[in-house]
Amino acid sequence: MSARDHVITTRPTRRGFLQIGALGLGGLTLPQLLRAESSAGIRTSHKSVIMIYLVGGPPHQDMFDLKPNAPREIAGPWRPAATNVPGVQICEAFPRLARNMDKLVIIRSLVGNQDGHDAIQVFNGRHPGKKAPGGGWPQLGSVVAKLEPPTDPAIPPFVSLCYPCTHGPYNEPGPGFLGTALSPFRPTGPARNDMSLRGITVNRLADRKTLLKSFDDTRRDADASGAMRGMDAFNEQAFGLLTSSRLADALDLSKEDPRTVGRYGTGDPTIFMDDNGAPRVPQSMLMARRLVEAGARVVTLNYSKWDWHGGANNSIFKREAEDFPVFDRCLSALIEDLHERGLDQDCTVVVAGEFGRTPRISAQVGRDHWPQVNCAVMAGGGMRTGQVIGATDRIAGEAVARPVTFGEIYATLYRNLGIDANRATVNDLEGRPQHLVEDNSVPLKEVA
């Protein structure tokens, strides 16, 4: 029996309910089936993505592509350790991930990376040096929100848990040419205070909605910029949020089992790593799981800062010794949590940064930017896991087998969401249909 069959729950999962229905409730129409599972208290499943951005570019050769036989100035101090998949080794600082390797896909040969700090390629799969339509390319969550309706009016389809970084290129690129109506909902910071009625009744809120609409009908007739359409979307979303507690509940970790919170670990969201990176906040991964379980389709988050050039008392290996164990713990907890809750078939997790790091350790005991090759980790989504895709040379400097592009990763994400990236299109500001991925990329065949 596989790990995914051991679902920890107090009521039947949707998958189990469908199996029971197929055996004993033959002849049900789809509406009848949906009503039956609703009455049984079972959540309607939906496809989702949790995107974890490792701010600043993680060191691939110290994490998932170690080269112990390389010269010392390249290999570094970390040793490879066995995983629960025979023949696959990762850094010894990741014992929990090693025990979950059967649930992971490690890509060691990600090519076509940019060479500067810019989060855009991680969030939309497109190289920022290439020509883009007016307004810019939209990120994944905005495209999904455009193509797929919300699973629930009270749950935004695209939620960003990213903390704003003072270094601008570390931040999400936004909805691009799709416009402000398809921006992510951002519940961190001041927005959390706007998610309650604070003394206003639901009936009174409905009266205000009617009054607002009467004013908006007049303004909309005179609007040619499209701004009113964005305001319409925001207003509808706001009313939905205020009249339902589902989103607030999903964001409230006090409602989670303390033992589960403990598995992930917690961090201080007010401490931004190296001042301009993101905070090291493991609980963001737990919050992401709660959001997709509540109905969000795409959740993005940024995690810590991985731009380790070295320097006085700040060597890359000192920073790795601080960050690696925390990351090992929270990412493993997320992967295990998805499997235990029966979400591993529906929710895809992807972890990546802008680029890899130089093979040679610098005089400052750091590794610099290296766009020639990068690594990424994927999990869930019903993919064939427990494998490594691609390989690099003896110093982890170049891909020598199965080069993978961001376009292929994105085509895979869209496929896992039920969207054919080469057939579906979204219109740019000039009304021209644009494909969802770069260079007609196709999904990774290895994970199908």
From TrEMBL:
SUPFAM superfamilies: Alkaline phosphatase-like (SSF53649)
InterPro entries: Alkaline_phosphatase_core_sf, DUF1501, TAT_signal
Name of the protein: DUF1501 domain-containing protein
Organism of this sequence: Fimbriiglobus ruber
